[in-house]
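Dock zinc ion; give full complex structure.
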Amino acid sequence: MTLPSVQIHGAEYLSLKSLAKVVGNPPILARTRGTVRIQLGSSSLVLTVGSQKVRVGKSVVVLSESPRRFGGGIIVPLELLPIALGARYGENYVNWDPETRVARIGERAYSVRLLRVRAYPDHTRVVVEETRPHDFVLREDGASGRVVLELKRGIVSPSIRSSQVPDGLVASIEIQQLDNDSRITIHGAERRLRSKVFALERPDRIVIDLFPREGPERSSRQAETVTKTTPERADKLKPVARGVESTEPSDLLLSRQFVKTVVIDPGHGGRDSGAIGQSGAKEKDIVLDIGIRLRQLIEENLGMKVIMTRTEDVFVPLENRTMIANRHRADFFISLHVNAAPRSRAVGFETYFLSREPSDRGARASAVRENTALNLEGVGQDAQRGLKTVLWDLAQTFYVRESSELAELLLNELGQNLKVDNRGVKSAPFFVLIGAAMPSVLVEVAFITNPEEEQKLEQETYRQRVALALLNGIAKFKTRYEKRVGSMSAPSPVVR
Amino acid sequence: MACRQMKTAVVLIALLVVTVGAIALWGTRSVTVNRPAAQRTALETRKPAFERAKKSVTLFFLAREGYSFREENREIESGTTTEDARRTLTELVKGPKGGDLVPTVSPGTKLLNLFIDSSGTAYVDFNQGFRDGLPGGAQEELYTVFSIVNTLASNFAQITRVQILIEGAEISTLAGHVDTRMALPPQYVF
Ligand SMILES: [Zn+2]
């Protein structure tokens, strides 16, 4: 199937019709004008002309360009193609190569797209992340000092490249596609390598630990070691191995900690009660309690500094909340709220990140760069409002991807831990998120107007569960964000 | 993760680039990118006062089930754009007629004034009762604010943004969540 595309101002677009054709479902015009919905298997895609935000299932994806009208129809940015295919056929079944511009959809293809290398005092660990071909073969090539891992039905993503590793033990890692399998070859620096491999779940990954091999005569005699792991065998390995890798205590010690400070903002307070439930529970009290629990959990488990915008029942103006975050140069900001819907029976939780259609897209990006160094401290004084609000907008636009990712991670954890309605990631022009010069989200943990949820919120154990779920989401975000921020600011933290 | 039905065959999707003379086709329209996407139901012009024209407008209410916007059509008497916008918003304040819809503003709400400036911003001035009647949750506030913004922006081509005022004054926020310091463009899904 070949699809035509259109280029407008350097951005490439695809017609909505083509997109619908490849996913096999026609676009349905929603009741709200300019909004289109396409069913994607059990999920769906909702887009609006002129808006960069596209809803895919329960998450919101921010595109670099908005869908627009063109030649009597609607066109969408090309980047939506792999997203839609992934949602329709399952991400593991879709492999999109932006260079050859070919999307392959096949059965049980696993993409190999992320490799993590970390040096420990006595060994080096290579982790093939986000992959699930737990059917692999590991070969230690004694003569050459290489370790070769073949992943059955693994498709190498174009974003992953062979690389040199500035590590005393490993010299380089080579990644190749061999028909339906992918091959990862780890070359030792000087000494020959001894290896240990295991597969883990949640998230799916394959871990290869490499140790220096002592005694050259032993390795030459034992020329080839083959470890074949069938899916059944991998299952047996997992329970033992899971705890070992996922805690990664030495990771924390060895890698530089980039993400150090989080701001927790319990909404409302003082004269502002927020929403009030039928039996009188107040939003301001519930979110303060959850916030204080969350602070303790973060300090104990993640070793991060936690800044609270309030620790007691006091009124804090919205401007001051982001000001506090900016003054402490926090790494991210989480505002806690409880929802209200007195006119419906709504239940569940949702997370929000900031949306505000920027007024000038072209000027936006460059202005952000110009102003990232700008001291956002002290903003919020009414006199300077106009201009500063615009800059606040820009600051948040800069972090929109991180913010939506944080919103998604928190949502997933709440979903796994609370077992109530997951209402999805949403976006809205919330005051408290505007002006935060960092990724920021607003979490609505429940509906206080729903008597059942109100009752739950009044229980200490439930509030602790909410705090724990948020902690897990924060931990995941911290790891991901650190990886990204770390790779930007320090090419490779070598600790050997 | 649920099992998905899958075609066994490998499907190839290749792209053929067709570059269109972008400037000629798009150049003049590229300035309108950020305008609301909704098609205007009525591109209205000033009519003589003696002409008692009727016009159909779309109001944004809330669905009783499921929490989303639901539209309802209403006939209003048509005059100038400002008059029409005022009448339309007054209808929104009255609430829905359909039983499966719920109002987005409280019963004590009064629209005091509405005017449109040359940049396309409509200023809508409500009484204090509008603010006092809000239940306090973020979602309610979102639907209240955007039912007003969407109703105006989707019916009147001249209106691209809406600034909410209370008793003639700008306010930071109605119930502590949505930023109303500046005029808001419409948002149909959150
Ligand atoms: Zn709130």
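Observed: Confidence is low (pLDDT under 50) at residues 215-256, 357-392, 487-496 of chain A.
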